Amino acid sequence: MDPGCSCPDKGTPGGMCHATRSPLSLSSLPVAAAEVGRNSEISARRVTPERGGACGSVLLVRIYVVEGAYALALFSALTFVLISWFVSRQYARYGRFAGWPAGVSAAQIFYGCALITFTLFPIPDYSTNYCARRADVQRWQLDPLTSLDNITAYAQANGALATAFSPVLWQVMLNVIFFVPLGFFLAYRSRRSLPTTTALAAGTSVLIELTQGTGLWGLLPCPYRIADVDDVITNTSGAILGWFLAVALRRSLPDPRPQPTADPGPPSPMRQAVGVLLDVQIYLIVQIGVFVLVNPALQGIIDLNSAYVFEVMVTLVTFTLFAFIPMLRDDRASPGLASVHLVVARKDGSTHPAALWSVLVRWIVRWLPVTLFGLPALLVILPIEALVSWRTEQHRSLASMLSRTVLVTREHLRGAKRSEADQVTT
Fold first, then answer.
1. Distance from CA of residue 70 to its chain's centroid?
2. 299 — alpha (psi -120 to 50), left (phi > 0) or beta?
3. DSSP 8-state class, residue 408
4. Which of 54, 50, 69, 58 lies closest to 17 in space, CA to CA?
5. 6: which strand partners?
6. Residue of 69, 62, 33 whose CA lies nearest to 212
7. Which one of 14, 47, 114, 190 has the largest count of C-beta atoms within 10 Å of its C-beta?
8. CA distances (Å), 148 to each of 11, 61, 230, 387, in order?
9. pLDDT tens for each residue of the chain, 426 residues long
C-alpha cells in the first residue's frame, strides 16, 4: 500500500500525484521508508518532469514527521532515565537549578536524539526482497553540486512554482536547516570558533553519510539511503549559518553558563518535592530493571505471579534504595534527595550524621506502604507529606517529623562543620 500518495510509474503531467488519506501509523513506516527511499534518489539522479512533484513532497513530509516522532520518543526515554543525573549536575555547576542553562542543555540533547533518528530511521522492511528490488540503485553520489543541477532541471521542466513545493528543492533546504542548530549550539553554548564549528559539522555530516551509505556499517543487508556529497556541503553550510546566527544573538540571550551561586539554604518546598519525585522515578527505573533481569533467572524456580514474591521484591528494592544506601552515606540522603544536593540532618542542628533509626523511620513512613499496597499508596502518602510540610515550620514533612530530622543543603552542612571546627581550634 502506498504510504501517502498514488503515482503512476512514470508520473503524471508535471509530476503531480493524487494524495491519499492513508493514516500515518507504525505499521506503515516500513512501506513509507521504502517509498521515500525511492524518491530520495532524486538527489542522486538527473531530474525529469516525471520525477518528484506532490507525491515526493508528501512522502518527504511524512518521513520527517516519523523521524521527529522517533526523536521525541528517544528524548523522552533518555529524560526518564537520566533526569536525576541531569538535575544533580545543575546543582553541582550552578548551586541551583538554573532554568535557562537547563533548557539549553535539554535542547542540545533533543537535537542529538534527532541526529540519531534522522540518520537511522525509519528502516525499511527487508523481508520483502527490498535489496533485490533495488540492486541497481547507485548508493554513492560523489559529484558535488549535483542537487543544484537537479533543481535547475526540475525548474526548467515544471516551472518555479512547482519547484518551490517539490522535494527536489526541499531536501536540499532541509539539509541546510537541520544543521543550523549544531552551528548555533557550538557557537552559543560551547563558544567554538568558526573554523572549529565548520570542521565539526563537516565531520559529523561525513560520519552520517558513511553510516547511511554502508547500511549502518554492514549491520543491515543493504543500504537504504544515498550517501551524497552534496549533503555534506549543505549540512556544513547550515552549521555555518547557525554559527553566525548565534554570534548575532549572543548578547541578546541569557548566558548559557552563568556563574555559580551560594546555596546555604534552607531548601524550598519545591526543591524538597523535586527530590521526592526523583526518588519515585529512580524507584521505577530500578524496579523495572529488577523485573527484567530477575524474571528470566527465576522462571520455573518460583511462582513469579505470586503476590508474595512481588511484595518481597518491592520490599528489597525500596529498602535498598531508601534505607540501606542512605545508611551508608554520610549525608543520609536518598538518591532523589542527593540529586538536589540535600542532606538529612539531625533536628538539633548537630553536624553528626542522622541516626540510623531515623533513616529507617523515613523508609517506614514513605515506602513501607508501597510494599503493602503497591505504588498507588504514594498517591495518598505524598499529598499527606506535602500538606504537613506546608503547615509546619521549616517545611518538615511527616517523615522528617517522626524521624526527628530536617532537610538542609550540602553547603549549609559544610558551613556548619567549618564553623564547628573553627570553634574547636580557637
1. 10
2. beta
3. E
4. 54
5. 18
6. 33
7. 47
8. 22, 21, 9, 65
9. 333 343 433 333 333 343 333 344 444 444 444 444 444 443 333 333 444 555 666 777 778 888 889 999 999 999 999 999 999 999 988 888 888 999 999 999 999 999 999 998 888 888 888 888 888 888 888 989 998 998 999 899 888 988 888 888 988 999 999 999 999 999 999 999 999 999 999 999 999 999 999 989 989 998 888 899 999 999 999 999 999 999 999 989 999 988 888 888 789 889 999 999 999 999 999 999 888 887 776 666 666 666 677 788 889 999 999 999 999 999 999 999 999 999 999 988 788 889 999 999 999 999 999 988 888 999 999 999 989 988 887 789 999 999 999 999 998 888 877 776 766 666
DSSP state, residue 260: P
AA letter at 120: L
Q: Do 400 and 407 contact (CB within 8 A), yes or no?
A: yes
The CA distance from 183 to 199, in Å, is 11
Whole-number CA gyration radius for the chain: 29
d(CA 358, CA 343): 13
Residue with cell 508528501: 58
Residues 6+ apart with CB under 8 A from 362: 322, 323, 326, 334, 344, 399, 400, 403, 405
Cell 488519506 identifies what position? 21
Q: Which residues contact residue 251 at a Cβ distance below 8 angstroms, ignoring those fewer than 6 apart? A: none
Q: Which residues pair with 406 in a beta bridge?
A: 345
Among 22, 52, 26, smallest CA distance to 38 is for 52
Cα 53 from Cα 47, distance rounded (Å) = 11
Task: State the cell numbers at 118.
Answer: 534522522
DSSP 8-state class, residue 305 = T
In sequence order, the β-bridge partners of residue 18 are 6
Phi–psi pair at 405, nearest 5 degrees: -130, 170
Report how far apart, in Å, the C-alpha atoms of 232 and of each of 195, 227, 322 are.
Answer: 16, 9, 50
How many residues does the structure list for the chain?
A: 426
Residue 86 has, within 13 A of its CA and on its CB side, a CA count of 20
The answer to whether residues 56 and 166 touch, using CB atoms and an 8 Å cutoff, is yes
Please state the pTM of the whole predicted model. Answer: 0.79
Distance separating alpha carbons of residues 217 and 213, to the nearest angstrom? 8
